[in-house]
Amino acid sequence: MVLLGGYDIEVKFGGVTALKDVTLEVLPGKIHAIVGPNGAGKTTLLNVFSGFIKPRKGKVLYQGRDITRIKPHVRAKIGIGRTFQKTSEVFKHMTVLEVVMTGALASIKDSVIDIFTSALWHGPYFRKEEEIREIAEEVIEFMELYEYRHRIVGSLPYGLQKKVDVARALAGKPKILLLDEPMSGLTREEREDMARYIIEINKVLGITVVLVEHDLSLVYDLADVVSVFSFGSKIAEGPPAEILKSEYVASAYMGKAAI
To answer: What are phi and psi of 225, to 5 degrees?
Structure first.
């Protein structure tokens, strides 16, 4: 059964077509990579999947349910987690623990206002606030961020800020995690470290991963399935060994030779 799918998706920004008749299905338990040059439509598709952009045409199904018009925060609560290319300016002024706790709110059914208002008065939702902190602490330990838990995110090196964003999304207990270039701007050592976390998130925690990434060598090592985008269209899809060695794909991907 398909976990998350976009069907005949079309997105336009003014006169520019960002996605044209794109169909992409993500199977449960897989690491599904999306690659392509800048402007190919990769991030736009993640925005459609996570609800930040409504498609002009087409639909999005999650576990067989049509979620095309469902808001982003509701998608987070039903199991669709998301990271972003850049760390939010809001999160940069919060501690690591606070940011990860914010992510954990997605795993709690009650509203944010109910939880925190009641927590002030030690009411029935006080236990929920404790539950949120517990979830956050577990994720912080998993992502090996414990020594930074009380540090302001904006004061941390860029590589650690990227890890915090993954931890925030992970704290929502997603069934599928959409990672938007989680390794961009990282050193080689940090990239290898992030790759290890992605494998553990998938293999140990059992979370399906959609990975937007430019490094084809890492994609070759990590992904079960690769979809190649160019000028808003999906031009190829299949196992990394087959797709990334294709001369046609390499030519479309900025004219590079196949790996």
So the answer is: -135, 145
